[in-house]
Amino acid sequence: MTVTIALQLLFSGLSIGAVYALVALAIVIPYKASGVLNFGQGEVVTLGAYIALVFTQWGVDYWLVLLGTLVVSALFGLIFERVAIRPIVRAPEFTIVIATFAVGLIIRGAIRLYWEDNEYSLSSPFNMPPLNLGGVRLNANFIWILVCTAFVSGSSALFFKYTRFGKAMRAVSQNRAAARLMGIVVEHVYMTAWAISTAIGAVAGLLMAPVTGINPEIGNILLKAIVGAVIGGFTSLSGALVGGLVVGVIETFSGVFIGGTFKHIAPFVVLIVVLLVRPYGFFGRAQVRRV
Amino acid sequence: MLVIVLAALAVVPFFLTSYWVYLTNLFLINAIVAVGLNILTGNAGQISLCQSSFMAIGAYTTAVLSARYGLPYWLTLPAAMAVAGGTGALLGYPARRLSDIYLALATFGFLEIFQVVIEEFSDLTGGVRGISIGRPSLFGVTLKSDLSLYCLVLAAAVIMIWVASNLMRSRFGRAFNAVRQSPYAAQALGISIGRVKLITFALSAVFAAVGGSLMAVVVGFIDPLEFNVIASLRQITFIVVGGLGSIAGSVIGALVLTALPELLRGVKEYVGIIYAIILLGFLLFMPGGLITIWAIIRDRIWRKPVKIEGANRAASLD
Questions:
Q1: Integer Rg of chain B from CA
Q2: Which of A93, A103, A272 is facing B280, going by the closest CB pair?
Q3: Which chain A residue has the Cα nearest residue B92?
């Protein structure tokens, strides 16, 4: 195997992984804030792609499509949290897990009713011939995905580290009661976390749509993003980022070297092994609590 | 009351068309799976998103053994139960250490792996094209008519529900509830939590396998799509709508939600979304399920000095 092929595979693995990483971030942020794992996040990704499709069909410029998708999906996140999550936030874990699944199914059902199972494609300014860099072909869409992922993860890291609201969110994730006593409105933190998360998820959908096309099933990448988040330890943003990228690379390389079947199984084998050996991932902290 | 229901189930199908017999079969199969899932989720408090995989194990074991090796049904059904019970124990063994979302994730991962396995080993399973199964034969007699098949399903359902209700009243069954309500207290009382988790996983897998095996012979055709995560969520909907931790609730949930698609036949494309809305609605507004309506009515009629909740919910239905 030549270096060129290895680099080519690495590039496409990282690009796919970048989408997983974005969705993994979108899973980890509300989980850190409110302890809720959103199994409906995959459908949020699908929804993002369809929102972008609607805006594009209206003939809006790409950058306005991006902005519009962000705003609409963030609003959706606010409503999602307020309507479906807040009333049951104290209920058993089972109730919350299944409720997020139900919301996902409702989104998927609604999309199916309106657009049916048709395949759509999304135009983007990056649909151009691939760049050639020393024999490695770089698809402009993939480069754009990587740039966006770097931007999103960088800006969210800065947001959590330096802004007042970001600090409030970290405080809530550490100790809800103490944060409330310090005058933080915990409910606002929850809603914001969900809005940020659905916006990131929707952007992931918008970014992958020009590459994969749009259909009601594209949200199935959620599982691979979850694998990334688990590798990253579920409570670490940088862990989610690295985990997502790792899943993308594993998937691509195992597809080439071991075969197509294993490509589909590999991420889940990794998931189960990580859950059994290090349930808190490679970046998370172990919760010392015996049950 | 139970006697009336049983008598009705035994007599009425003789006057129904074969389509309605088929629907009743589906209802009973769903009830078996729901009862099994409810022991795991409602009583022992473990999340499982891979119940349909265990159904698939039951269905495919039956299909492969009877179609390829020509084994009679009275051998394939126990084989299906054994394979699924073994797999359930295998999955339950590592799952002892996991709880809540991590358990949800592990079972979700298992389901996805199993889907791929069914699709890839197409020599044995027929892959995405599915596999068809002939009518079952019991002790040399082939169950050709719909009614004889119905008798088989009814007998299986009665036995499985009878086993479940007796089990839940045993020392062992009460330990399941204890593990859900307070793992610490249960452990302090000498209940091995790991063992309870392991056994409930294997047990619910056996119930699902019986359902899956019966489904294979009733429908006559299976493909991997019937055992995806949506199917698992449909079974969860049965127990949420009926009532978590209640055998009667599982049966009611299965009844209502098997009948629902029939009522909505004119607007078929809405069935999926209506299922999801019902699921979310019950989680938000009636977490106890339909069975709580009965409890409210009963309390109105026979006022009780002390309100019984939680642990005795299942027992108070008898």
A1: 19
A2: A103
A3: A276
Looking at the complex, report in whole angstroms how far the Cα of residue B136 sits from the nearest Cα belonging to chain A.
33
Contact yes or no for B127/A261 (Cβ under 8 A): no
Q: What does the DSSP 8-state code read for residue A126?
A: T
- At B223-275, the pLDDT tens digits run 888 888 888 988 999 999 988 888 888 999 999 888 888 888 777 778 888 88
Confidence of residue A50 (pLDDT cuts 50, 70, 90): very high
Distance of residue B15 Cα from the nearest chain A Cα, in angstroms: 37
- Rounded distance between C-alpha atoms, residue A242 and residue A229, angstroms: 9
Q: What CA–CA distance (Å, rounded) separates B162 from B152?
A: 15
A251's enclosing H/E stretch is helix A237-257
Q: Test A91 with B94 for CB contact under 8 angstroms.
A: no
Tell me whether residues A105 and B183 touch, CB distance under 8 A: no
CB contact at 8 A, B121 and B112: no
- B132 DSSP β-pair partners: B221
φ, ψ (nearest 5 deg) of residue B138: -115, 120
Q: Which residues of B touch A110 (CB under 8 A)?
A: 273
**8 A C-beta contact, residue A259 and residue A209:** no
> What fold, for A3-277?
ABC transporter involved in vitamin B12 uptake, BtuC (1.10.3470)
Cβ <8 Å between A109 and B120 = no
Q: How far is B142 from chain A (nearest CA, A)?
A: 39
- Using pLDDT thresholds of 50, 70 and 90, give the confidence band for residue A203: very high
For residue A106, which residues of chain B lie inside 8 Å, CB to CB?
A: 273, 276-277, 280
Distance in angstroms between the alpha carbons of the first and the last residue of chain A:
49
Question: In the beta sheet, which residues pair with residue B222?
Answer: B131
Is residue B282 a contact partner of residue B288, using CB atoms and an 8 Å limit?
no
Q: Which two tokens stand for residue B175?
A: 């330990």
Domain boundary assignment for chain B: 16-228
Give the integer Cα–Cα distance in Å for B121 and B123: 6
- Number of helices (H) and strands (E) in chain A: give both, helices first: 11, 2
CA distance B62 to chain A (A): 25
Alpha-carbon torsion B22, B28, B32, B34, what sign?
positive
What residue ranges do the domains of chain A occupy? 3-277
Q: Which phi and psi (to 5°) does residue B251 adopt?
A: -65, -45
